[in-house]
Amino acid sequence: MEEYFKAVKITEKVYWVGAIDWSVRNFHGYETGRGSTYNAFLVLDEKITLIDTVKAPFVPEMLARIRSVIGDVTKVDYVVSNHAEPDHSGGLPATVAAVKPEKVFASAIGHKTLMAYYGDLGVIPVKNGEAINLGRSNLAFVETKMLHWPDSMVSYLDTEKVLFSQDAFGMHLAGSGRFGEDYPQFVLDYEARKYFANILNHLSPKVLDLLDALPGLNLDIQIVAPDHGPVWRRPEDIAWIINLYRECALQAPRAHAVVAFASMWHSTERLAEALSDGIRAAGVEVKLMDLQVNDRSAVMTEVANSGLMAFGAPTMNNQMFPAMADTLCYVKGLRPKNKLGFAFGSYGWSGEGGKQIKAVLDEIGAEQPQELFQVKYMPTSEDLKKIHEIGESLGRSLLDRVK
Ligand code: FEO
């Protein structure tokens, strides 16, 4: 039944044999509105090599794509696991059972991680910088610890000049096109930034280390093949994604602001609207996000692309409103840097919510030039005027920062 799944040629010796997950909308808490792909690649040489596998339910699709190239999946000699997270390794046990490879390779930490997940699959650990010979070509391994997990490594195929980069330089984007040029640039730009913000933002120093180390590796990279989303094969696309990673990792403040709020009876909502209008009046582009209709990963995407983040919520049962607690827990873990922050909200009698929001902004290290602003029950006209002025002041402070 799966035989209509075909491989896609990347180079004369490299084929895409992954899977398209059109329907995934929640990737460990990250809202994947455009779905995703789990990319796997088949290298044709004397030793036929499969690089990465797919999420477990997609193994039949991947095996069918492999069959479309080599007929019999047992012709695969080697399997390489660049990354042990289950969106790539979940299909490894079934793949090993079907393919019966001569050897399975992973990094030293990958070896231990795969053992913990699946038991003994006969994985051979490789060293950082080690290469294996596939016949005419060599496949070299470079550890990229914490990009995205401690086990992560990338592989470089010398004859085809392909860097198999696992999570790095990827994005969650389902589609029938396999290459960057198949998609509109605005889609690529949004999804790449969203992916970085939600998967890699807290690892920005490691990303910069990798980008700084890349030239010294002396790899002639003509194709970058990540494990999610499009393959980059045009020089301008490779330059674009590398520059975007550097920009995102540097986290320099930008003249954008995000105002995220939760509201029970529209009091905090009215404050958020007045605040946003004040920021806009100062000349700063602002995005107003109601947590009823914007999930945590959409908010984090805007936080990463902003120089000012404001969070507002009411107090409920002596706590900040739960939707705000969820979002702030997530944002804090992704460690945004170089931001201005502002906390606001409404309350009826105890008022802990706003203080808790401010405390999280303190933990994040956000500079807060304005005090916590809270109103009792419903904002008055004076309150709205005051928070509008606060917005204008915050907007001006941000513009001073990005000059
Ligand atoms: Fe696509 Fe870190 O897994």
Care to describe what's here?
This protein is of the alpha/beta class. The protein has two domains: 8-250, Metallo-beta-lactamase, Chain A, CATH 3.60.15; 257-398, Rossmann fold, CATH 3.40.50.360. The chain contains twelve helices and 23 strands. It has helices spanning 59-70, 86-89, 92-99, 108-118, 185-200, 204-213, 235-250, 267-281, 296-304, 322-333, 352-364, 381-402; strands spanning 8-9, 14-16, 19-21, 26-27, 30-31, 36-38, 41-43, 49-51, 78-81, 103-107, 123-126, 131-133, 138-143, 153-157, 162-166, 223-226, 256-261, 285-290, 308-312, 315-316, 319-320, 340-347, 373-376. It has a seven-stranded mixed beta sheet, with helices on one face. A five-stranded mixed beta sheet has the order 12-13-14-15-16, with no helix packed on it. Strand 1 (8-9) and strand 2 form a beta hairpin. Helix 8 (267-281) crosses helix 12. The longest helix is centred in the last third of the chain and has 22 residues, at 381-402. The mean pLDDT is 97.
Provide key terms for this protein.
403 residues; alpha/beta; Metallo-beta-lactamase, Chain A; Rossmann fold; 2 domains; 7-stranded mixed sheet; 5-stranded mixed sheet; 12 helices; 37% helix; 22% strand; binds MU-OXO-diiron
